[in-house]
């Protein structure tokens, strides 16, 4: 059990002690303060969510701005692929930070709001039921204690008053004793006044000690009742602290991209693409595509051959063959490198390792059209798959 008086015994510490009447209000006010703290936490991370959304938008804008420049740049081969990978990585990171924004608002923010609504019960005319219950409990426990303190203070002031009066009588008596200028009768009268003052002081002191004893006898009960209410408020505060700790840990999990596997995959792929830059392969490609390695039709004698007239219906057959050939060329078997969940109704969802058919090549925005088994078609990010 706690001690009633302060250790240093100073008047300031004593008057501000939890045990003094009315000084429990800071504990009662914790409920309202915790409610406001929840509002502040939600507002704080809603603002952080806006930062994440703006960052995602800026990444997408940056990628879209530079894609045509990169695609039409004079670079080629593995070096061009590496530069393009920076832009595709930005697109994937933009999606990640957009999802962080959604998590902070719809998951973490809503979680705190729901808990706040279930935990804090507002009263019709302001305040909270929990605060009122604690305030009522503390006030009920302090009421008899406050009465006893008031009675004790009255007895103390009465005793100090008669003590001062007795002290003055003693000083007058000491001043007159042995003084030839003061008559004997007056000296006796002053002595009698001192004796009466002393008797009165003893009487008031006895009353003061009796009241003090009564207060000290009641103190353990008072302390037990106060600590019982205080322990209840501590338990409520403990639950609030535990919940908010978990809420903040959830926010930390969403914001901590250092342990996010998707981010690791983005930067691992980017690093591997950069490490795959091969100057010899690029130079060989340039030589064979734009240099002396290109095939050419060197001058040679060409015999004249008469042109053959096409047979009837041959044109239609050639067109049909062209259509069949384009369909065959457009359908390429691909395998997913990563999981992807479609964000729109016209997008395709798949798991890493899943195979399906690419039926349209990559567009300017980096999207391809695919068709899964069963005939389901949709768009998907081109850099999420590889050709089988």
Write the layout of secondary structure elements.
Layout: H1 11-15, H2 25-71, H3 77-119, H4 129-176, H5 184-255, H6 261-275, H7 279-290, H8 314-330, E1 332-336, E2 355-360, E3 367-371, E4 377-381, E5 385-387
Antiparallel strand pairs: 1-2, 1-5, 2-3, 3-4
Describe this structure in words.
- The structure is a single chain.
- With 388 residues, the chain is an alpha+beta fold.
- 67% of the residues lie in helices and 6% in strands.
- The protein has a 5-stranded antiparallel beta sheet.
- Helix 2 (25-71) packs antiparallel against helix 3 (77-119), helix 3 (77-119) crosses helix 5 (184-255) and helix 3 (77-119) packs antiparallel against helix 6 (261-275).
- The two termini are 75 Å apart.
Summarize the structure.
This protein has 388 residues and is of the alpha+beta class.
General form: rod-shaped
Strand content: 5-15%
Q: Could you state the order of secondary-structure elements as H and E? A: HHHHHHHHEEEEE
The low-confidence runs, each spanning 5 or more residues with pLDDT under 50, are 1-10, 311-315, 317-329
- Contiguous helical run count: 8
Percentage of helical residues?
55-70%
Strand adjacency order, main sheet = 4-3-2-1-5
Based on secondary structure, the structural category is alpha+beta
What number is the mean pLDDT? 87
Radius of gyration: 45 Å
Number of strands: 5
Determine the N-to-C terminus distance.
75 Å
What quaternary form is this?
Answer: single chain
Largest sheet: 5 strands, antiparallel
């Amino acid at each position: 059990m706690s001690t009633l008086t302060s250790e240093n015994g100073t008047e300031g510490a004593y008057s501000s002690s939890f045990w003094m009447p009315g000084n429990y209000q800071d504990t009662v006010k914790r409920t309202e303060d915790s409610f406001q703290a929840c509002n502040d936490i939600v507002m704080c991370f809603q603002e952080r969510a806006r930062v994440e959304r703006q960052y995602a938008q800026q990444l997408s804008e940056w990628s879209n701005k530079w894609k045509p420049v990169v695609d039409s740049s004079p670079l080629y081969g593995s070096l061009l692929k590496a530069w393009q990978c920076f832009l595709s990585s930005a697109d994937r990171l933009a999606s990640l930070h957009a999802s962080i924004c959604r998590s902070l608002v719809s998951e973490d923010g809503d979680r705190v709001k729901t808990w706040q609504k279930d935990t804090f019960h507002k009263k019709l005319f302001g305040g909270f039921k929990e605060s009122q219950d604690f305030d009522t409990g503390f006030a009920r426990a302090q009421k008899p204690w406050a009465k006893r303190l008031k009675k004790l203070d009255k007895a103390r002031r009465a005793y100090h008053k008669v003590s001062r009066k007795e002290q003055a009588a003693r000083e007058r008596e000491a001043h007159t004793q042995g003084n030839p200028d003061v008559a004997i009768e007056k000296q006796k009268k002053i002595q009698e006044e001192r004796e009466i003052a002393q008797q009165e002081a003893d009487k008031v002191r006895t009353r003061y000690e009796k009241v003090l004893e009564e207060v000290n006898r009641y103190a353990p009960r008072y302390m037990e009742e106060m600590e019982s209410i205080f322990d209840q408020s501590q338990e409520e505060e403990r639950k609030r602290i535990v919940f908010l700790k978990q809420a903040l840990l959830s926010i930390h999990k969403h914001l901590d991209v250092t342990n996010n596997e998707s981010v690791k995959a983005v930067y691992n792929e980017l690093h591997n693409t950069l490490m795959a830059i091969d100057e010899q392969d690029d130079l060989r490609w340039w030589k064979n595509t734009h240099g002396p390695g290109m095939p050419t039709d060197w001058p040679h004698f060409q015999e004249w051959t008469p042109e053959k007239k096409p047979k009837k219906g041959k044109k239609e057959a050639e067109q049909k063959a062209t259509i069949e050939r384009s369909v065959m060329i457009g359908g390429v078997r691909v395998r997913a490198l990563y999981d992807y969940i479609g964000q729109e109704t016209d997008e395709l969802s798949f798991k890493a390792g899943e195979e399906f058919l690419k039926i349209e090549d990559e567009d300017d925005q980096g999207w391809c059209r695919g068709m899964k088994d069963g005939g389901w078609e949709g768009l998907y990010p081109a850099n999420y798959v590889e050709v089988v």
